[in-house]
Amino acid sequence: MADRDLIVRIAFGSMAAQTLRAAISLRVVELIGDGRRTAADVAADARAEPQSMTRLLRALAGLGLVREHAPGTFSVTGAGTLLDPGRADSLTSFVRMFTDPALTRAWEHLDGSVRTGKTAFDGVFGTDFFGHLARHPELSAEFNAAMSQAAGEAAAALPRAYDFGRFTAVADVGGGDGTLLAGVLAAYPALRGVLYDTEEGLAQAPQTLGRHGLTGRCSVIAGDFFRSVPKGVDAYLVKSILHDWTDDQAVTILGHCREALPPGGRVLILEPVLPEVVDPGPEPGLTEAALTHLSDLNMLVNVGGRERTRHDFEDVCARAGLRVTSVAPLREAAPFSVIETEAA
Prior knowledge:
By secondary structure, this protein is α/β, with parallel strands linked by helices. The chain has helices at residues 2-11, 13-25, 28-32, 39-46, 50-62, 92-98, 101-104, 110-116, 121-125, 129-135, 137-150, 152-161, 179-187, 205-211, 247-260, 288-303, 310-319, and strands at 37-38, 66-70, 73-76, 169-173, 192-197, 218-222, 235-239, 266-274, 308-309, 322-329, 336-343. The longest helix is centred in the C-terminal third of the chain and has 16 residues, at 288-303. The termini are far apart. The mean pLDDT is 96. Residues 107-322 form the O-methyltransferase C-terminal domain. This is Methyltransferase.
């Protein structure tokens, strides 16, 4: 029975994800607020049908995101509060992006990607993923917000886990809106920053840097990391970038960092590091190990990249003229690790 239950739970996973999407669209968490409210009242404010709202709220209760105290009366749980877009630690954009057809439709062709090794997204949408974002500014803004929300834990954990005090300036390559770099600069007041990404990727950067009071200490430079990276810094951050690309493309990105790296400089890669053999943990299901390998499949079907083992990282770094000096799990922002590299 346990084996059957495992398969059923996994099969219902996409339904659970779309339940989160509906809850965000209907502003359920915001409408319930900090107290208790009836489903009828929430439905009235959401302009929804009362019985259907009750069914949605009970599904959310089953998922642990709200609690039903009496028939038809609900409050929001701690996890549920993360679906409130007004919170600093909200995951609403992350959920919307990862349940959007732009990310889910290619998954319908996972079997084809496994057979061929080719990205399914391009065939479904007629262009590559980042080209699609460039054509749809609203979706690009949602993606940027999702990446910002995903970077929140790392932005808090990285400055405590790694000593940036030895550097004078750090560049975040592909740094998006600057959430990660802002976390580092806030913790190291003497450090200067350079935020580097495409025009689309940097669209929300001025607001993020302004909110943290870093506009005068951080330069924002638009460019293409397949062509070059900014010089004049002694540390490069590369977070959640390499897994978007093939090994050859990852070597190109790292090679540009190596070319610009001064003596004593470092390139810091922040990505999950796959084990050589999968350890599913004590309980099967959607564990941290499973999520990392699902991310690997997401790279396959949507962008053409991959998650990597330590050996894989050492290989692409060596090809780029870099040597891995340490790999340290970022425990407060699992499953990320800090991969420190220097000139080989």
